[in-house]
Design brief:
The chain has eleven helices and ten strands. The chain is of the alpha/beta class and 321 residues long. The strands form two sheets. The protein has an eight-stranded parallel beta sheet, covered by helices on one side. Strands 1-2 form a two-stranded antiparallel sheet. A hairpin with a 6-residue loop joins strand 1 and strand 2. The longest helix has 15 residues. It is globular. The protein starts with a strand and ends in a 7-residue tail after the last helix.
């Protein structure tokens, strides 16, 4: 496993990280989740990502129990705050109240005294950015959080946060967690250039486009029963990509993967990791073998010709907005 700095910070995280969105506490039993986390740790993955809203706190509890047997200083643990965790008017967003209460709740569920990375899961239009950043800075000063980041923020929102943090002498963002893969490339236009200049690293989620880039979904074939695409709850995130044009283009990547001695998931992950501003790519796994398979993409370098051929094949389906 290779490691990269998280943005311009001094901490190093594994190029491949293990997440728990739509899996742990949901479609994946706790025993399976623990087996995946154990295997990830064993092969050198030190970055584990979750969020308070994943299965309404259950994912955090499962991740926390699975990590209990490892030395706390040997892994990097991230969680998030923003989405509703109750029915009350203050049970959501990025107010000082919600951030403080949810950080404490996450620490209890995870069974730790601090999280390495605390991320704003989305931008909150209803809370002054100064209030949010001050609340996060307070958590850092209290020792409950070591680094702060955001998820799915625009370039302007990230830029504003960095400016305000500088003006107010607050702790600075080190990461952004965006959706990024061979097809969904919208961060390339403004977010990555800004983050490269400012030392903010990308912690990429959905590098396999919810499984589309694994190649298991073929044109003109109905998804197999039991697959994510056949699950009405999970496939709502895949709908826009489950069409003949996209699946046919993805099918055309098989020859490139074969030429590189990779399978389709490894090709997709290697493509994401070619981007120097990416600090880590988050995978999901329901079996330890999937962890092994995906982790093999760490350190793989694609030639310029391969990258150009991927662009040619995906021309017309790759999205930049």
């Amino acid at each position: 496993m290779k490691y990269r700095r998280l943005g311009n910070s001094g901490v190093k995280v594994s190029e491949i990280s293990l997440g728990s969105w739509l899996t742990y506490g949901g479609s994946v039993a706790e025993e399976q989740a623990a087996a995946c986390i154990d295997r990830a740790y064993e092969i050198g993955i030190n970055f584990f990502d979750t969020a308070n809203v994943y299965m309404h706190g259950t994912a955090e509890e499962i991740v926390g129990r699975a990590l209990k047997g490892f030395d706390r200083d040997s892994y990097f643990l991230a969680t998030k705050v923003y989405f509703p965790m109750g029915e009350g008017p203050n049970d959501r967003g990025l107010s000082r109240k919600h951030i403080s209460e949810q950080c404490n709740a996450s620490l209890r569920r995870l069974g730790v005294e601090y999280v390495d990375l605390y991320q704003c899961h989305r931008y909150d239009e209803n809370t002054p950015l100064q209030e949010t950043l001050r609340a996060l800075d307070d958590l850092v000063r209290q020792g409950k959080v070591l680094y702060i980041g955001v998820s799915e923020w625009t370039a302007d929102q990230i830029s504003d946060a960095l400016r305000i943090a500088g003006d107010m002498n607050l702790d600075r963002l080190v990461s952004n967690q965006p959706r990024y893969n061979m097809i969904q490339r919208n961060i390339e236009g403004e977010v990555i250039p800004l983050c490269e200049r400012e030392g903010v690293g990308q912690v990429v989620f959905s590098p396999l486009a919810q499984g589309i880039l694994t190649g298991k979904y073929r044109p003109a074939e109905a998804p197999e029963q039991g697959s994510r695409a056949a699950d009405p709850e999970s496939n709502r995130f895949m709908q826009q990509l489950m069409n003949e044009e996209v699946l046919s283009a993805v099918d055309g990547l098989r020859s490139i993967a074969s030429e590189a001695g990779l399978n389709m998931p490894q090709l997709a992950l290697a493509w994401v990791l070619r981007q120097e501003n990416v600090s880590s790519a988050i995978i999901g796994a329901s079996r330890p073998e999937q962890v092994d398979d995906n982790a093999a993409a760490s350190g793989v370098e694609l030639s310029a010709d391969m990258v150009s051929e991927i662009d040619r094949i995906l021309d017309g389906v790759a999205r930049y907005d």
